[in-house]
UniProtKB/TrEMBL annotation:
Protein name (Swiss-Prot/TrEMBL): histidine kinase
Boundaries of every Histidine kinase domain copy: 477-700
Protein's membrane topology: Multi-pass membrane protein
GO cellular component term of the entry, any: plasma membrane
Organism of provenance: Paenibacillus validus
EC code(s) of this entry: 2.7.13.3
Reactions accelerated catalytically: ATP + protein L-histidine = ADP + protein N-phospho-L-histidine
Transmembrane segments: 222-240, 247-272, 284-304, 316-335, 341-362, 369-388, 400-423
EC class: transferase
GO biological process: cellular response to phosphate starvation
SUPFAM superfamilies: ATPase domain of HSP90 chaperone/DNA topoisomerase II/histidine kinase (SSF55874), Galactose-binding domain-like (SSF49785), Homodimeric domain of signal transducing histidine kinase (SSF47384)
Subcellular location, principal: membrane
Length: 700
């Protein structure tokens, strides 16, 4: 047990170390920007002008065009209109940032509206190709560079009917603009609660911007794949073990976040699906957000039910489900107005969860350290993204990184629990094996001995049952079938003793008595033989013979005897499969099979008229030897066929009792065939003869 505890200890802190290292690595990769990215050397735009004439493009590959831009609220101006002096009075607005609440024309801009941005950038005049990476602009824009229309995303308009929202990542190439670069951007928003350029356009060298873009997309794709993989993994674990509801809610959270993530930041989904409808994407993003928070709150509640109260879980579930329903009910832009309020609720619930986790940590709950670190990482990342001014602090994808790191840390709790459970099972299993050394073998030996005894008892019981049945049959038959002959003999003897029979008839009565006694003797012998067969006490001399030997043995055995009785006799053999040339083999007692055939043939003789035909057929197929005795005598009635192999079947038309037989011949034949593992049956039509056949299995 000591070694197992150590393994769990090492495993736990190894996971902590790896998680911290991975978090630091991802944060550093995501937050990394060349020095120029912070505009330390490029400066900020001032009153619509930005000077980059002394900027060293070899040292800093790109510049964020941020600061004060000229801003024309309520006007969609082209470069020609701006140059012609037709422009209204301008104001200035900071980029990046939403235009909500911006001071314009003595008032404040609302979230819905349209405007024109303008920035003049002074360059060094060197012949150089630039790339302009446009950010996510809510919700449609048109961009001109030096009077040339370079790109349009969505449809810019002056009302909701005339505008069309869209998001499509764009990187525009600018060939040798000269010493001055004029950037004019028309923006309209009637479909979202906030509008404007909430991130900065980036100007730089094409190869550097493309490399940065590819790096960000790769990191985001990896993290999305990781979240989806974790979600599927824990969903499968829940399907395998339904009691672990924590796995279900954590897997659901990872799936929802993994689906939502491509719609955020760099918008990876729009590189995969450039024609994706803006409204569809917005609804998917919103629904995943509204459902993911209740899922993670429920996950923490299941981990620590005494710390996280059920009322808080119900509140978040109610808010999430309500917002989800409203997404499909409310029109744009009203559905987007729920997002900031739900973000506020998320932050409040996050603070509550951190407090509950701190209590759980204080109480020594398992895995509380992992969960509180993950939650704190996510809240810190969201806070940085939400409240830090992006013009001074470039958050990049820090919120997504924090979320990913938090999910990984939380997943370690489930991993540690599973590891401990597996370790406990292994420990118990090993202890059971140590305690049960030799027990399995003893059980197997005792079981085998009991099975042997049980089989022996079963065989004895079966033998006793057969003997008892045979005894009852014998006593019944003796009392029933010997009664009539004995009564007749008694009557004949009394007639002789009383002098009723005349002298000349006494010889006749004595002959009748002798015949009756002879029949009784034969009946008694048959009864004893049948009883021994039924009790399996008859000895059999079983040996393997070929079917050819049996053919030769029985071929001429009955012909001479039947011919003397005025009957014709024929034999024939048939092989129904070619085989490999070797004769088929059967295991039989030849004398007993001879007895079977004798009983069947002489039964046929008694019911075949003079000149009739009796045929003996041997048929060999793939699995058995079939022997048939066919006659053209009186036949058997259909109602008698099922009973002809019963002992003493007492119908006058029965073949068992006609002609003075004992009525046991076919019953004896059936028992002998059964002993050989075969079966016997009869086929007949009244007046058209009968066929009695039996089957013996071949030796494999």
């Amino acid at each position: 047990m000591v070694s197992i505890s150590r393994n769990i200890f090492y495993y736990k802190w190894f996971r902590v170390f790896i998680s911290i290292l991975l978090f630091a690595l991802l944060t550093s990769v995501s937050g990394y920007r060349p020095m120029a990215a912070s505009n330390e050397y490029a400066g900020q735009a001032n009153r619509g002008e930005l000077s980059l004439s002394g900027y060293d493009w070899a040292r800093g590959p790109y510049v964020r065009l941020e600061g004060e831009w000229e801003f024309y609220w309520g006007a969609l101006l082209t470069p020609d209109q701006l140059h012609a002096g037709e422009r209204p009075e301008s104001s200035y607005i900071r980029v990046p940032g939403a235009w909500n609440g911006a001071a314009v024309n003595g008032g404040k801009a609302s979230g819905s509206g349209y405007a024109t941005y303008r920035l003049m950038v002074a360059l060094d005049g060197q012949p150089r190709t630039y790339a302009l990476k446009m950010p996510y602009v809510e919700t449609a824009y048109t961009v001109w560079v030096n009077g040339e229309l370079l790109g349009q995303v969505g449809q810019v308009g002056k009302d909701a009917n005339g505008s069309q929202p869209k998001f499509s990542p764009r990187t525009l190439l600018i060939g040798s603009p000269g010493p001055t670069l004029e950037l004019v951007v028309q923006v309209s928003n009637f479909h979202c609660f906030s509008g404007g350029m909430q991130d900065s356009p980036i100007l730089g060298l094409p190869e550097r911007i493309d490399a940065e873009l590819q790096t960000n997309l790769s990191i985001e794709t990896i993290m999305v794949g990781g979240l989806l993989a974790m979600g599927i993994h824990y969903m499968v674990l829940y399907l395998l073990r339904r009691k672990e509801r924590e796995s279900f809610y954590f897997g659901l959270f990872c799936l929802l976040v993994g689906i939502r993530a491509p719609f955020l930041e760099a918008g990876v989904i729009y590189y995969w699906m450039p024609n994706l409808d803006w409204l569809v994407g917005k609804k998917i993003e919103s629904v995943c957000f509204f459902l993911s928070i209740p899922a993670i709150v429920m996950f923490v509640h299941l981990l620590y039910p005494q710390e996280v109260k059920r009322a808080a879980v119900r509140l978040m579930f109610g808010l999430g489900m309500t917002c989800t329903v409203l997404v499909f009910v409310l029109p744009v832009p009203w559905m987007t107005y729920m997002v900031p309020y739900f973000e506020l609720a998320t932050m409040v619930s996050g603070v509550y969860i951190v407090f509950c986790l701190a209590v759980a940590l204080y109480r020594g709950r398992e895995g509380a350290t992992f969960v509180i670190l993950g939650t704190a990482a996510y809240i810190a990342a969201v806070s940085v993204k939400k409240w830090f001014d992006p013009q001074y602090f470039h958050t990049g994808e820090v919120a997504f990184i924090g979320l990913f790191a938090g999910a990984m840390l939380a997943s370690f709790v489930l991993s540690v629990r599973s590891t401990k459970a597996i370790a406990s099972v292994e420990s118990l299993s090993r202890q059971m094996r140590e305690m049960n050394v030799g027990l399995e073998q003893k059980i197997r030996d005792r079981t085998a001995e009991l099975e042997r005894i049980n089989r022996s008892l079963g065989q004895v019981n079966e033998d006793l049952a057969r003997m008892e049945t045979s005894r009852r049959h014998l006593l019944s038959n003796i009392s029933h079938d010997l009664g009539t002959p004995m009564t007749l003999i008694q009557g004949y003897v009394e007639a002789l003793m009383d002098g009723v029979v005349q002298q000349e008839q006494q010889q006749k009565y004595l002959k009748l008595i002798h015949n009756r006694i002879t029949g009784l003797n034969r009946l008694i012998q048959d009864l004893f033989q049948l009883s021994k067969l039924e009790a399996r006490q008859m000895e059999f001399d079983i040996h393997t013979v070929s079917t050819d030997e049996l053919f030769r043995f029985f071929d001429e055995r009955y012909e001479l005897e039947l011919a003397g009785g005025g009957l014709r006799f024929e034999t024939a053999s048939y092989i129904l499969h070619p085989g490999d040339g070797r004769p088929a083999l059967v295991k039989v007692d030849t004398n007993r099979i001879d007895q079977v055939l004798t009983n069947i043939i002489y039964n046929a003789v008694k019911h075949t008229p003079q000149g009739g035909l009796i045929q003996l057929h041997f048929i060999v197929d793939e699995h058995s030897l079939v022997v048939q005795v066919q006659d053209n005598g009186t036949g058997i009635a259909p109602e008698d066929l099922p009973y002809i192999f019963d002992r003493f079947y007492k119908k006058d038309k029965s073949r068992n009792t006609s002609g003075g037989g004992s009525g046991l011949g076919l019953a004896i034949a059936k028992e002998i065939v059964d002993f050989h593992g075969g079966r016997i049956w009869a086929q007949s039509r009244l007046g058209q003869g009968a066929c009695i056949a039996f089957m013996l299995p071949l030796v494999k």
